[in-house]
Amino acid sequence: MAIVKMKKLRLMVVREQKEELLRSLQLLGCVQIDDNAELMNSEEFAPYLREESSASTEYRSELSKFDSALKLLDRYAPVKTALFAMRPVVDKKDFFDEDDLNARLADAEHLLELEAKLRSIAAEESRLRGLCEQLEPWRNLDLPLETSGTKRTSVFLGMLPAEADGSEIGGALRDAAPESELFEVSSDKEQRYVCLVCLKEECDDALEVLRAAGFTLSSLGTLKGTAAENIASLKEKLSDCREQKETAEKEVRSYAPQRENFKLCLDRMNVKIAKADAEARLVGTDSVLCLSGWLTAPEEKALADCLANFDCAWELEEPEESEYPYVPVQLRNNEFTEPLNMATNMYSLPAYGSIDPNPVMSVFFILFYGIMMADMGYGLIMILFALTAIKKSRPKGGRKYFFGLMLECGISTFIMGILSGGFFSNAIPTVYEMFGKECPIGFMMHPLIDPLNDTNTVLIGGMLLGVIHLFTGMFVNWHMKARDGHFMDGVWDEGTWMVLLFGLAFYFGPNFVPAMAKLETVGLVLLIVGGLMLIYGSGRNEKGIKKLTALGGAIYNGVTGWFGDILSYSRLMALMLAGSVVGQVFNTLAAMPSEGGVTPFSLIAFILIFLVGHAINFGLNILGCFAHDLRLQCLEFFGKFYQDGGKPFTPLNVNTKYVDVES
């Protein structure tokens, strides 16, 4: 339950064994390959070395083809996936089958050709429909569209605004071009479609009158035949497009059985890309290659056994303290604390050489979540959902952490629900009251902790838990200082405030708890001792007037910091109370239709309001409790000791999304 110890790896191997070595390291999954900056910047070795090239760009292009093919299948041949679908297990030999990969790549490329064809058909359909719509107003015009006139006359097709005054335009047209005639073919809400016939010598005058009224020429002069003939021809072409489209879509759907193969190939390509990226970090000569990186120390023997099969030379060494900022970090915990990796990763990994917070944080995170949620019904839902997901889908990585954390928080929520008597808030007593009976379940009627009536108890209890939480963080920080040989710094920094806070609790405690009266003197002594420790400790590294400023800063920062930190834990009470009250409100609303007596209608209304209301309350609480719990850990708790900034350990491994590779 700690940060995994890392060792720096340097390795040289003959070039002919490059592919086999990278594949073996990938299957081993415990080596992170870094750039060989040290060698390439060396004046001694740089002239003889060159960086390796890789097929990473080509692989990414192939990955994109598989991804596009899968999306195309999802669009034209969608399937419903189970909520907790289990990933298929693939044999290692089958997973790295290049012949099958190439065959599936050919299928993906053919699917992309079909997609391009479908896009082309869709574009043509859009063009033809647009032309049909453009021709429709001219359907009744029994005149070929290419007609421009006769030897002495000109013919123009165009549009006028719908609001144009026909009689006024006609009068103006007769005055300007007496031998012209304007025919209205059709009209709609926006435009009037007209045909102008005039003498050629009167064209300019006639068009000038029409343009003044908003006339615009149509763009149909390139078409041959009447509008009706063109519409019929276009509809035939649209019918052909539909047939081609249906044929292409049917062919796309015929590839539906390849969906799982495409998913497998996506995993294959991601693994190949990871290996190619690692290959690009190598440097070497015509005969040898150099590799540098990091190894998780517990796997040293496994690496030695692996490298025994290669013609190579390698060495491991411990990183120096000055290198700690560059050493990658991997957390290794047991089944109970491992799910908290999710919370730690959301914040920041601990710096190498510091402390993994998960073992200490896990108890508080799970306990605080249970206190804030505090409902047996909600806890039961979380437990069943998490167990089902874990059993049926065998989650890995982040999903495994998520469902593991949900299970642990669900158990905590269920236990705290027993203590607070909550089962979907007060659902059971409400149901009994609907039928005019008294609830016989004692702990629901008289719980150990009643969020509504014991608000002060919950508030004080939450703050006491906060003090314990913060003290734990200070002890961890003290331990880290002692480990590094600075035990007395821990005494003056953490020990001082512990003594002062215990002194305050013992001295003022009798005002709230009379049984603590005998501790008042002890509290006064602790306050005096703590004050002296604060005076000395705050300025122990300063001289002159700086000792006074350091003391003032320590008092101000300590008082305001501790007050704010402890007050933050009031959210434990606030969320516990909010969830309980909202749940009770929905239960009351659900029971209202049964106030005059229970009927089939009132039961249906109760069930509907109950389900919708508690779904809303559960959704808000499951997210709100997580966010507030995470805040208490990341700001208050981590602020006492946590050293962040760790770089994640990213080993070369077989990282898959859709399948599990059998080792």
Description:
The protein is 58% helix and 12% strand. It is an alpha+beta fold. The longest helix is centred in the first third of the chain and has 38 residues, at 98-135. It has 22 helices and 17 strands. The chain is extended, with a radius of gyration of 39 Å. Strands 2, 3, 4, 10, 11 and 12 form a 6-stranded antiparallel beta sheet that branches.
Work out the strand percent.
Answer: 5-15%
Main pleated sheet: 6 strands, antiparallel
Give the total of beta strands. 17
Q: What is the CA-CA span between the terminal residues?
A: 25 Å
Unreliable spans are none
Please estimate the helix content: 55-70%
Number of helices: 22
The overall average pLDDT, rounded, is 88
Cα radius of gyration in angstroms:
39 Å
Shape annotation? extended
Structural class: alpha+beta
How do the strands and helices of this protein lay out in sequence?
Blueprint: E1 2-3, E2 6-14, H1 18-28, E3 31-34, H2 37-40, E4 50-51, H3 56-76, E5 89-91, H4 92-95, H5 98-135, E6 153-161, H6 166-176, E7 181-187, E8 191-199, H7 203-212, E9 216-217, H8 227-253, H9 259-280, E10 283-284, E11 288-296, H10 300-307, E12 312-317, E13 328-329, E14 331-332, H11 341-347, E15 349-350, H12 358-373, H13 376-393, H14 397-420, H15 427-434, H16 442-445, H17 455-483, H18 487-508, H19 520-538, H20 546-568, H21 570-591, H22 600-637, E16 644-648, E17 660-662
Parallel strand pairs: 5-17, 13-16
Antiparallel strand pairs: 1-14, 2-11, 2-12, 3-11, 4-10, 6-8, 6-9, 7-8, 10-11, 15-16
Helix pairs in contact: 1-10, 3-5, 3-9, 5-8, 5-9, 6-7, 12-14, 12-21, 12-22, 13-14, 15-21, 17-18, 17-20, 17-21, 18-19, 19-20, 21-22
